[in-house]
User: What shape does this take?
Amino acid sequence: MTRRYLDQRLRLSLLRAVDAVEAHGSLLKASAALGISQPALTKNLQELEDILQLRLFDRHSRGVIPTAGGRVFVQATRRILADVRRLEEDLDQLANPSSGTVALGALPVAASGVLPGVLARLKTAHPDIKLRLEQGRTTDLLPLLASGEIDLIVGRLYEPAMPDGFRREPLWSEPISILARSEHPMFSETVSVDSLRRYDLVLPTVSQRVGQEIEHLLAMLGLEPTAPLRSSSYGFIREMLHATDSLSIMPRLMMLGDLLRGTLRIASLPIPAPDRPAGLILPRDRELPPAARAFVQCLRSYIREIVTRGVASTATGDRATEKSDATLAEDEP
Assistant: This one.
């Protein structure tokens, strides 16, 4: 077999080129993202394919898709680029021990709910720590966690269809809840299904899994509106809740800031809401860097605060709290 001499011939610029092409699915978009011309990018890909003796992408009318060999090379490329990025961050931390970077993956509800409060704590306690944030679904973020591109994932913990090698630690519960402005007339009486039917609903347009959970709770309550107002804008829903007598049904921590400020309230459900554990997804095969451990410490502290204020609850009761406290003590420098 002909030697490829990859250790002598590969350059980081070629790796960045193939990473960008796969990410954007288009030579034009990838060249714009890299700040080079499309002919220069095409030349880089041709050089790389010559080195590898392998076709990396198939061209089609809508752009490019990786071949089987291309997918293998892209995965390896991202691990290499993640290691280089981590090396740069480690060198920065050597120069300034109180600095560092947290590479964080966040699911949408966590990003709009608990994350702002946690980052405010992190900024106060560790002002030199930087953040790289990737927001997406669990299926989008797990490959980044596996390759080392991110350190950890924060958000809803769904049971994997089969073992995936990651460690999941529940910290809090974020049940689907009914939210309304704090002066809403329904709070002057006992909340019942009949009283809920008197008000319009404004519902979030969210991912399929969360949407199914919302629809499930609507069915359990017997609230099946023919044409509820739906929006993908949390800002719009928030304004509707504050300005009208509309109700919303969503994971309660999506509106955590308003719940803590007291402008929105949670309506007591006439039926038990299914538990929705949330917390951390962590790699099993590598330790968290110091900056990520500092982030986790701030997260646990913030969760304890919102649990104490009655806005959230621990996902698995006292045992989860004890585990978190024990792990927190281990994480402290």
